[in-house]
Design goal:
alpha/beta; TIM Barrel; Rossmann fold; Immunoglobulin-like; 3 domains; four-stranded antiparallel β-sheet; 21 helices; globular
Length: 718
């Protein structure tokens, strides 16, 4: 039995926590509500810093396995893989924590409370932090978020392996430069249909230990002091019993940016009374005076500290935890050879083949020389994205190709251009690598251009090195001279393949029309270069799918500050994308047969989708069977992803697949905050991609459309 389900054990922890809190002075209790919690030596409570990060590996505390960025792992469309990744992360987190405790190190980034995953919806491709998320779809985000949390927190009946935190609650996806004052206004339908489902799944299914509030306001309420979000929805409707942490220094935004309060003490009182338990920042020391002046009751403070002590008891960092199995994880289990091999395998699963005219896979024996060109070819930063740890070894795309071909093939290299400026050398002329590009192309049998972004161009407001729009993108164009370099390379007459790196959609419509092949590598992790080389040369077949829509430009998008979902993402857009959500090519071919439903009526018990998938190609590969549901009535969204199954097949191999669609899969939220399955017709689409026109133009998604009917209305509270 998992701890999250063990109510008897949880009640024991609550009683133990209450007993500890009852012995604390007012000042001692307040000292526990800061991210840098103070020691209470007389009660055996050590100092503890709640702030740690593990978005795609243990971050900011030295060497760890650095997996692909979250958005890149989402490309695998693989729930099982995500849980295996987070299990490795929590093992390494425990290994590092146990070592750090041995030497008395309780610094920031040294605890077991990891502020991951980010389950916000990537609603706009300009948002700089979108690469921290699992993409634009609430269902995919929910499934990956739940499994990430389960892997991180573990499955022990008494102890958590680590504590996960779902962030940023809620309705948060830019713009970054106004997040401290911005009010995200959203209607109830979009709130419950798009922005909240992943959080609800994390709370109710995964039993996530913590939830972090967002910087912005939502419908006028500062998120870290929102009665609607923290009391009515999170703790009221969803039954959340963990702790809430503010985003860092967000509480001061109440009076400085949002102007919902006038003083720091008012801000602290609003946050505490609304349900925030931990202040990442420096304002909660004012709780002492807030309690003395009656602005916050001591009973509320006691409850705050109680849930925090419960978290530490679950982790075994407070109290008698001699039987905690995770105490046995020692430092030798951090960043092992096995984890590095697994990391490379994860990278291989995440790459998305966007175009292939037959040039791929490359045949090593038929090539004597390769040109590698581009600002991301040898850029370590483009491997990892943000919120990253330190890898013991990085393999860039250039290094991966060089290592793969060895001395058998000559590799020519040119940076080509700066990532975003118009020259590489400050004293040089504009386009100062042009002649080198031409020289490399002239002497190469095939040219690989490695382009895109890194976390200096997209990321969080305030991140060191962000050069564009506080981390957001001003448009979807390739930065600097990258487009010019691609055109220069293509004009040389040699086959050109682009490896695109970065964590968000870009307008690469020219490349789709003119280049021979395009591989989206995302931020592929520290082993990314090795994985990309193995894909380019056919050791493995690409199997990734896009978790976001690639738009051709931003002209058809609503304003960045508009949180209405109309016209956004594959679920609501009416224009044709460059590359659709759920799209990705392979080196092999898959065929679906015997596709059927368990029944043709929508009832409270739901429906099971059954199909047989066969690898009819000549190489082994993975494929994502995707199930979409469309309510056939006016004003409803496009077909939405509601079922998913990842399968791996050898050539000629077949497997039977079953995907359960609960009745809720057919429901849609309405303005009264209830989800309804209205009477009428529904279409269930089963295939290897989205049932849209652009997917059909780019590939054969093997779509089967099946009709079902709801004879009676079904509804649920939100």
């Amino acid at each position: 039995m998992e701890l999250a389900q063990n109510q008897e054990q949880l009640e024991k922890y609550r009683e133990q926590a209450k007993a500890l809190v009852a012995q604390m002075t007012l000042e001692e209790k307040v000292g526990q509500t800061l991210n840098w919690a103070k020691a209470v030596d007389r009660l055996g409570i050590k100092a503890y810093n709640w702030w740690n990060e593990a978005l795609h590996g243990v971050a900011r505390a030295g060497v760890a396995t650095v997996f692909p960025q979250a958005i890149t792992m989402a490309c695998a469309f693989d729930e099982d893989m995500i849980e295996k990744v987070s299990d490795v992360i929590s093992t390494e987190g425990r290994a590092k924590y146990n070592m750090q405790q041995k030497y008395g190190d309780t610094d920031i980034y040294k605890g077991l409370t990891f502020w991951s995953p980010n389950v916000n919806i990537f609603r706009d491709p300009r948002w700089g932090r979108g690469h921290e998320t699992f993409g634009e779809d609430p269902f995919l985000t929910s499934r990956l978020g739940v499994r990430f949390i389960q892997g991180l927190q573990g499955h022990d009946a008494k102890y958590m392996k680590a504590a996960a935190c779902a962030k940023h609650f809620a309705v948060h996806s830019g713009p970054e430069d106004i997040r401290h004052s911005f009010d995200a206004v959203v209607n109830n339908t979009d709130l419950y249909e798009t922005y909240l489902p992943a959080f609800k799944a994390c709370v109710q299914e995964a039993k996530v230990e913590a939830v972090m509030g967002a910087y912005n306001r939502t419908n006028g309420e500062a998120c870290n002091g929102s009665k609607t979000l923290l009391q009515d929805i999170l703790r009221g409707k969803w039954g959340f019993r963990g702790h809430v942490v503010s985003d860092c220094w967000a509480i001061k935004d109440f009076h400085e940016g949002h102007h919902v309060t006038n003083t720091p003490m008012e801000s602290v009182a609003l946050a505490a009374n609304s349900g925030c338990d931990v202040n990442c920042g420096d304002l909660f020391p004012l709780l002492t005076d807030c309690v003395k002046q009656g602005m916050v009751s001591e009973e509320r403070l006691d409850e705050m500290v109680t849930v925090l002590m419960m978290a530490r008891l679950k982790l075994g960092t407070v109290g008698d935890a001699h039987d905690n199995p995770y105490n046995a994880i020692d430092y030798t289990q951090n960043n092992t050879t096995a984890s590095e091999k697994f990391n490379c395998a994860v990278s291989e699963k995440c790459a998305v083949l966007l175009k292939n005219d037959g040039i791929l896979p490359l045949k090593k024996g038929a090539i004597k020389s390769i040109g590698v060109i581009g600002p991301n070819a040898n850029n370590r930063r483009a491997l990892v994205g943000n919120y990253e740890g330190t890898a013991s070894r990085y393999v860039t795309i250039l290094e991966g190709i060089q290592d793969y071909v060895g001395e058998d093939v000559r590799v020519y290299y040119s940076e080509g251009c700066h990532l975003c400026k118009d020259k590489v050398e400050n004293l040089g002329i504009v386009d100062d690598r042009n002649s080198e590009i031409r020289g490399v192309c002239e002497n190469s049998d095939v040219v690989i251009c490695v382009m895109g972004l890194d976390s200096g161009l997209e990321g969080e407001e305030g991140d060191q090195g962000n050069q564009y729009a506080s981390g957001d993108k001003p448009d979807l164009k390739l930065p600097g001279l990258q487009q010019h370099v691609l055109e220069t390379a293509a004009a040389c007459g040699k086959p050109v393949i682009m490896v695109l790196m970065g964590g968000s959609a870009l307008d690469i419509s020219w490349s789709q029309e003119h280049l021979n092949g395009i591989l989206y590598a995302g931020y592929p992790g520290a082993q990314g270069g090795k994985a990309v080389a193995r894909i380019l040369f056919g050791d493995v077949s690409p199997e990734g799918k896009l978790p976001v829509t690639f738009y051709e430009n931003t002209e058809d998008l609503p304003a960045f500050t508009d949180y209405n979902m109309k016209g956004r993402t594959y679920r609501y857009m009416t224009t044709k994308p460059l590359y659709p959500f759920g799209y990705g090519l392979s080196y092999t071919k898959f065929t679906l047969s015997d596709v059927r439903l368990s029944k043709d009526a929508v009832t409270a018990e739901g429906i099971t989708v059954k199909a047989r998938i066969t690898n009819t190609g000549s190489v082994a590969g993975g494929e994502s069977v995707q199930v979409y549901v469309k309510a056939e009535r006016e004003g409803t969204p496009n077909p939405q992803l509601k079922g998913l199954k990842k399968v791996f097949l050898q050539p000629g191999e077949s497997k039977d697949v079953e995907i359960v669609l609960p009745a809720e899969s057919f429901g849609l939220y309405e303005e009264d905050c209830r989800r309804y399955v209205r009477t009428g017709d529904y279409t269930v689409y089963v295939g290897c991609g989205q049932p849209d026109q652009r997917t059909k133009e780019l590939t054969d998604p093997q779509i089967t459309a099946l009709q079902v009917k709801a004879a009676e209305e079904i509804s649920w509270d939100c």
